[in-house]
Write a structure and sequence with these properties.
alpha/beta
Protein backbone atom coordinates (compact mmCIF):
# COMPACT_ATOMS: atom_id res chain seq x y z
CA UNK A 1 0.00 0.00 0.00
CA UNK A 2 2.82 2.36 0.93
CA UNK A 3 4.54 1.62 -2.37
CA UNK A 4 1.31 2.35 -4.23
CA UNK A 5 0.93 5.71 -2.49
CA UNK A 6 4.54 6.62 -3.24
CA UNK A 7 4.05 5.58 -6.86
CA UNK A 8 0.91 7.69 -7.15
CA UNK A 9 2.64 10.68 -5.53
CA UNK A 10 5.58 10.32 -7.93
CA UNK A 11 3.19 10.15 -10.87
CA UNK A 12 1.41 13.29 -9.68
CA UNK A 13 4.73 15.08 -9.26
CA UNK A 14 5.76 14.11 -12.79
CA UNK A 15 2.43 15.34 -14.17
CA UNK A 16 2.73 18.62 -12.26
CA UNK A 17 6.35 19.12 -13.36
CA UNK A 18 5.43 18.35 -16.96
CA UNK A 19 2.49 20.73 -16.82
CA UNK A 20 4.62 23.52 -15.38
CA UNK A 21 7.29 22.92 -18.05
CA UNK A 22 4.68 23.05 -20.81
CA UNK A 23 3.21 26.24 -19.38
CA UNK A 24 6.65 27.85 -19.18
CA UNK A 25 7.44 26.75 -22.75
CA UNK A 26 4.07 28.10 -23.87
CA UNK A 27 4.68 31.45 -22.18
CA UNK A 28 8.18 31.71 -23.67
CA UNK A 29 6.84 30.81 -27.12
CA UNK A 30 4.03 33.36 -26.83
CA UNK A 31 6.40 36.12 -25.69
CA UNK A 32 8.86 35.31 -28.48
CA UNK A 33 6.04 35.30 -31.04
CA UNK A 34 4.83 38.69 -29.83
CA UNK A 35 8.37 40.11 -29.93
CA UNK A 36 8.90 38.70 -33.42
CA UNK A 37 5.64 40.31 -34.52
CA UNK A 38 6.71 43.64 -33.04
CA UNK A 39 10.08 43.31 -34.79
CA UNK A 40 8.37 42.55 -38.08
CA UNK A 41 5.99 45.50 -37.80
CA UNK A 42 8.80 47.90 -36.89
CA UNK A 43 10.85 46.50 -39.78
CA UNK A 44 7.97 47.32 -42.14
CA UNK A 45 7.82 50.81 -40.66
CA UNK A 46 11.51 51.33 -41.48
CA UNK A 47 11.64 49.67 -44.90
CA UNK A 48 8.07 49.12 -46.02
CA UNK A 49 7.52 52.31 -48.02
CA UNK A 50 9.00 54.24 -50.92
CA UNK A 51 11.44 57.12 -50.58
CA UNK A 52 10.72 59.86 -53.08
CA UNK A 53 11.64 63.53 -53.31
CA UNK A 54 10.02 65.75 -50.72
CA UNK A 55 7.96 68.31 -52.68
CA UNK A 56 8.80 71.07 -50.19
CA UNK A 57 12.58 70.76 -50.49
CA UNK A 58 14.98 71.87 -53.19
CA UNK A 59 17.17 69.24 -54.83
CA UNK A 60 20.13 70.31 -56.93
CA UNK A 61 20.38 68.81 -60.39
CA UNK A 62 23.09 68.05 -62.92
CA UNK A 63 22.22 71.27 -64.74
CA UNK A 64 23.02 73.28 -61.62
CA UNK A 65 26.62 72.05 -61.86
CA UNK A 66 26.98 71.91 -65.62
CA UNK A 67 27.18 68.14 -65.76
CA UNK A 68 26.45 66.00 -68.76
CA UNK A 69 24.08 63.14 -68.01
CA UNK A 70 22.95 59.97 -69.69
CA UNK A 71 19.78 58.31 -68.34
CA UNK A 72 20.24 54.62 -67.59
CA UNK A 73 17.65 51.85 -67.32
CA UNK A 74 19.15 48.57 -66.19
CA UNK A 75 16.07 46.68 -67.33
CA UNK A 76 15.24 45.34 -63.87
CA UNK A 77 13.36 48.34 -62.53
CA UNK A 78 16.55 50.16 -61.53
CA UNK A 79 17.14 53.56 -63.10
CA UNK A 80 19.75 56.26 -62.73
CA UNK A 81 22.26 58.44 -64.55
CA UNK A 82 25.78 58.38 -65.84
CA UNK A 83 27.32 61.75 -64.96
CA UNK A 84 30.40 63.32 -66.51
CA UNK A 85 32.03 66.73 -66.82
CA UNK A 86 35.28 66.32 -68.75
CA UNK A 87 36.27 64.27 -71.76
CA UNK A 88 39.27 62.75 -69.96
CA UNK A 89 38.22 60.15 -67.43
CA UNK A 90 40.41 59.05 -64.53
CA UNK A 91 38.11 56.18 -63.61
CA UNK A 92 34.49 55.27 -63.02
CA UNK A 93 32.88 55.87 -59.63
CA UNK A 94 29.73 53.96 -58.76
CA UNK A 95 27.87 56.03 -56.19
CA UNK A 96 25.65 54.28 -53.64
CA UNK A 97 23.13 56.57 -51.93
CA UNK A 98 21.82 56.49 -48.38
CA UNK A 99 18.21 56.11 -47.23
CA UNK A 100 16.12 58.82 -48.78
CA UNK A 101 15.11 59.95 -52.28
CA UNK A 102 18.12 58.41 -53.99
CA UNK A 103 21.03 59.94 -55.82
CA UNK A 104 19.29 63.31 -56.20
CA UNK A 105 20.28 64.03 -52.58
CA UNK A 106 23.98 63.73 -53.49
CA UNK A 107 24.33 65.78 -56.66
CA UNK A 108 26.87 68.10 -55.03
CA UNK A 109 29.19 65.19 -54.20
CA UNK A 110 28.66 63.62 -57.62
CA UNK A 111 29.56 66.95 -59.23
CA UNK A 112 32.75 67.16 -57.16
CA UNK A 113 34.00 63.85 -58.53
CA UNK A 114 32.97 64.72 -62.08
CA UNK A 115 34.85 68.02 -61.91
CA UNK A 116 37.94 66.09 -60.87
CA UNK A 117 37.88 63.89 -63.95
CA UNK A 118 35.71 60.92 -62.96
CA UNK A 119 32.63 59.46 -64.55
CA UNK A 120 30.00 58.76 -61.93
CA UNK A 121 27.32 56.12 -62.30
CA UNK A 122 24.50 56.36 -59.77
CA UNK A 123 21.45 54.11 -59.57
CA UNK A 124 18.41 54.75 -57.42
CA UNK A 125 17.87 51.67 -55.28
CA UNK A 126 14.60 49.74 -55.30
CA UNK A 127 11.74 51.92 -54.10
CA UNK A 128 13.67 55.17 -54.41
CA UNK A 129 13.13 58.15 -56.74
CA UNK A 130 13.22 56.92 -60.38
CA UNK A 131 13.47 53.20 -59.67
CA UNK A 132 10.49 50.88 -59.39
CA UNK A 133 9.26 49.22 -56.23
CA UNK A 134 6.59 49.78 -53.62
CA UNK A 135 9.18 49.88 -50.86
CA UNK A 136 12.95 49.78 -50.26
CA UNK A 137 12.46 46.27 -48.76
CA UNK A 138 15.47 46.14 -46.43
CA UNK A 139 19.13 46.95 -45.96
CA UNK A 140 20.50 44.12 -48.05
CA UNK A 141 18.50 45.31 -51.06
CA UNK A 142 21.04 48.12 -51.27
CA UNK A 143 23.80 45.54 -51.71
CA UNK A 144 21.85 43.95 -54.56
CA UNK A 145 21.54 47.39 -56.17
CA UNK A 146 25.29 48.01 -55.85
CA UNK A 147 26.04 44.64 -57.46
CA UNK A 148 23.60 45.38 -60.29
CA UNK A 149 25.30 48.76 -60.84
CA UNK A 150 28.76 47.15 -61.00
CA UNK A 151 27.61 44.49 -63.48
CA UNK A 152 25.85 47.02 -65.72
CA UNK A 153 28.74 49.48 -65.60
CA UNK A 154 31.35 46.89 -66.54
CA UNK A 155 29.29 45.85 -69.55
CA UNK A 156 28.49 49.34 -70.76
CA UNK A 157 30.82 52.05 -69.40
CA UNK A 158 34.14 50.58 -68.35
CA UNK A 159 36.89 50.72 -70.94
CA UNK A 160 39.98 48.52 -70.87
CA UNK A 161 42.26 49.23 -67.91
CA UNK A 162 39.75 51.67 -66.37
CA UNK A 163 39.54 51.49 -62.60
CA UNK A 164 36.16 51.04 -60.90
CA UNK A 165 35.56 52.60 -57.48
CA UNK A 166 32.62 52.44 -55.10
CA UNK A 167 31.64 55.48 -53.04
CA UNK A 168 28.71 55.36 -50.65
CA UNK A 169 27.12 57.14 -47.73
CA UNK A 170 25.31 55.56 -44.77
CA UNK A 171 23.10 52.76 -46.17
CA UNK A 172 24.97 53.16 -49.44
CA UNK A 173 28.29 52.85 -47.62
CA UNK A 174 27.11 49.58 -46.06
CA UNK A 175 26.03 48.39 -49.51
CA UNK A 176 29.34 49.36 -51.11
CA UNK A 177 31.44 47.59 -48.47
CA UNK A 178 29.40 44.40 -48.70
CA UNK A 179 29.52 44.46 -52.52
CA UNK A 180 33.33 44.28 -52.46
CA UNK A 181 33.06 40.63 -51.46
CA UNK A 182 30.76 39.87 -54.40
CA UNK A 183 32.29 41.78 -57.31
CA UNK A 184 35.78 42.96 -58.17
CA UNK A 185 36.38 46.68 -57.70
CA UNK A 186 39.59 48.62 -57.23
CA UNK A 187 38.75 50.78 -54.19
CA UNK A 188 35.85 51.75 -51.96
CA UNK A 189 35.08 54.89 -49.96
CA UNK A 190 32.51 54.36 -47.20
CA UNK A 191 31.15 57.45 -45.44
CA UNK A 192 29.36 56.85 -42.12
CA UNK A 193 28.75 53.13 -42.74
CA UNK A 194 26.77 51.03 -40.25
CA UNK A 195 28.03 47.50 -39.64
CA UNK A 196 25.01 45.18 -39.43
CA UNK A 197 21.27 45.52 -40.19
CA UNK A 198 20.07 44.34 -36.78
CA UNK A 199 22.30 46.83 -34.92
CA UNK A 200 21.19 49.57 -37.31
CA UNK A 201 17.56 48.88 -36.48
CA UNK A 202 18.41 48.71 -32.79
CA UNK A 203 20.06 52.12 -32.91
CA UNK A 204 17.24 53.71 -34.87
CA UNK A 205 14.49 52.25 -32.71
CA UNK A 206 16.20 53.15 -29.43
CA UNK A 207 15.28 56.80 -29.97
CA UNK A 208 11.58 55.87 -29.95
CA UNK A 209 11.21 52.81 -27.71
CA UNK A 210 14.24 53.15 -25.45
CA UNK A 211 17.56 51.35 -25.42
CA UNK A 212 16.54 48.36 -23.24
CA UNK A 213 13.54 47.33 -25.38
CA UNK A 214 15.49 47.95 -28.60
CA UNK A 215 18.23 45.64 -27.30
CA UNK A 216 15.63 42.95 -26.58
CA UNK A 217 14.27 43.24 -30.13
CA UNK A 218 17.64 43.02 -31.82
CA UNK A 219 17.76 39.18 -32.14
CA UNK A 220 14.24 39.27 -33.56
CA UNK A 221 15.29 41.79 -36.22
CA UNK A 222 18.10 39.34 -36.99
CA UNK A 223 15.43 36.68 -37.53
CA UNK A 224 13.39 38.97 -39.79
CA UNK A 225 16.47 39.68 -41.93
CA UNK A 226 17.18 35.95 -42.14
CA UNK A 227 13.60 35.22 -43.22
CA UNK A 228 13.76 37.92 -45.93
CA UNK A 229 17.25 37.36 -47.33
CA UNK A 230 18.62 34.14 -45.89
CA UNK A 231 22.10 34.06 -44.41
CA UNK A 232 23.22 37.12 -46.37
CA UNK A 233 20.54 39.27 -44.72
CA UNK A 234 22.71 39.75 -41.62
CA UNK A 235 25.98 40.41 -43.40
CA UNK A 236 28.46 42.52 -41.45
CA UNK A 237 30.10 45.26 -43.54
CA UNK A 238 33.30 45.34 -41.45
CA UNK A 239 33.81 41.61 -41.94
CA UNK A 240 33.20 41.85 -45.68
CA UNK A 241 35.77 44.58 -46.29
CA UNK A 242 38.33 42.78 -44.15
CA UNK A 243 37.79 39.52 -46.05
CA UNK A 244 37.72 41.09 -49.51
CA UNK A 245 41.00 42.96 -48.98
CA UNK A 246 39.84 45.80 -51.26
CA UNK A 247 41.55 49.11 -50.37
CA UNK A 248 39.01 51.05 -48.34
CA UNK A 249 38.69 54.50 -46.83
CA UNK A 250 36.24 54.75 -43.93
CA UNK A 251 35.09 58.28 -43.05
CA UNK A 252 33.13 58.83 -39.86
CA UNK A 253 32.03 61.82 -37.80
CA UNK A 254 32.87 61.72 -34.11
CA UNK A 255 29.47 63.31 -33.35
CA UNK A 256 27.44 60.87 -35.46
CA UNK A 257 24.20 60.13 -33.59
CA UNK A 258 22.73 58.00 -36.40
CA UNK A 259 25.43 55.33 -36.54
CA UNK A 260 26.59 54.74 -32.98
CA UNK A 261 30.14 53.66 -32.10
CA UNK A 262 28.76 50.18 -31.28
CA UNK A 263 27.58 49.81 -34.89
CA UNK A 264 30.11 51.92 -36.78
CA UNK A 265 32.39 50.19 -39.28
CA UNK A 266 34.97 52.87 -38.45
CA UNK A 267 35.52 51.30 -35.03
CA UNK A 268 35.21 47.67 -36.18
CA UNK A 269 36.99 47.26 -39.52
CA UNK A 270 40.52 45.91 -39.33
CA UNK A 271 43.24 45.05 -41.80
CA UNK A 272 46.04 46.67 -43.74
CA UNK A 273 43.64 47.47 -46.59
CA UNK A 274 41.57 49.82 -44.41
CA UNK A 275 42.34 53.50 -43.90
CA UNK A 276 40.28 55.70 -41.62
CA UNK A 277 39.40 59.37 -41.27
CA UNK A 278 37.60 60.59 -38.15
CA UNK A 279 36.01 63.96 -38.85
CA UNK A 280 36.11 66.10 -35.73
CA UNK A 281 32.87 67.80 -34.79
CA UNK A 282 30.96 66.12 -37.60
CA UNK A 283 27.71 64.21 -37.41
CA UNK A 284 26.27 61.79 -40.00
CA UNK A 285 27.24 63.84 -43.08
CA UNK A 286 30.97 64.46 -42.49
CA UNK A 287 31.55 65.42 -46.14
CA UNK A 288 29.63 68.62 -45.35
CA UNK A 289 30.86 71.54 -43.26
CA UNK A 290 29.71 71.77 -39.66
CA UNK A 291 27.50 74.72 -40.64
CA UNK A 292 25.94 72.71 -43.47
CA UNK A 293 25.20 69.84 -41.11
CA UNK A 294 23.45 72.28 -38.80
CA UNK A 295 21.34 73.43 -41.73
CA UNK A 296 20.44 69.82 -42.55
CA UNK A 297 19.47 69.27 -38.92
CA UNK A 298 17.26 72.35 -39.12
CA UNK A 299 15.51 70.85 -42.15
CA UNK A 300 14.83 67.66 -40.22
CA UNK A 301 13.37 69.55 -37.28
CA UNK A 302 11.13 71.64 -39.53
CA UNK A 303 9.83 68.54 -41.32
CA UNK A 304 9.16 66.71 -38.05
CA UNK A 305 7.19 69.74 -36.85
CA UNK A 306 5.10 69.68 -40.01
CA UNK A 307 6.58 72.91 -41.39
CA UNK A 308 6.13 73.07 -45.16
CA UNK A 309 7.41 76.57 -45.79
CA UNK A 310 11.03 76.49 -46.97
CA UNK A 311 10.80 79.54 -49.20
CA UNK A 312 13.41 81.47 -47.21
CA UNK A 313 15.67 78.51 -46.49
CA UNK A 314 19.22 78.59 -47.86
CA UNK A 315 19.58 75.19 -49.50
CA UNK A 316 22.96 76.12 -50.97
CA UNK A 317 24.36 76.49 -47.45
CA UNK A 318 22.94 73.06 -46.54
CA UNK A 319 25.05 71.27 -49.17
CA UNK A 320 28.33 73.11 -48.68
CA UNK A 321 31.13 70.56 -48.71
CA UNK A 322 34.05 70.28 -46.34
CA UNK A 323 36.99 70.82 -48.68
CA UNK A 324 39.44 68.99 -46.43
CA UNK A 325 37.33 65.83 -46.19
CA UNK A 326 36.58 65.78 -49.91
CA UNK A 327 40.28 66.33 -50.64
CA UNK A 328 41.22 63.35 -48.48
CA UNK A 329 38.72 61.19 -50.35
CA UNK A 330 40.11 62.36 -53.67
CA UNK A 331 43.69 61.72 -52.56
CA UNK A 332 42.76 58.19 -51.53
CA UNK A 333 41.18 57.49 -54.92
CA UNK A 334 44.18 58.87 -56.79
CA UNK A 335 46.81 57.13 -54.66
CA UNK A 336 48.61 54.02 -55.86
Amino acid sequence: MLRLLISREATVNVIVATSVTLIVIGVIFTVCFILLLVAWLSYRTAFGSRYDKNPYLKYFTAEDYGLNTRPVNCGNGLRGFLYEKQTTKNALIIFCHGMGPGQIAYTTEIAYFCKNGYMVFALDSVGCNMSEGKSIKGMYTGVDTAVAAIDFAKLNFVADNMSVYLVGHSWGAYSALCATSLRKVDKVVAISPPDTPSKTLQGGAAMFIGKPFAAILRPFWWCVNFLKYGVKGNTGASRMITESGVPALIVHGDKDNVVSPANAVYYKAKGGNVKKVLASGKAHNPYNTIEAEKSLAEISVKLKNGDKDFSSFDFTAAVKEDEEIMRKILEFLKSN
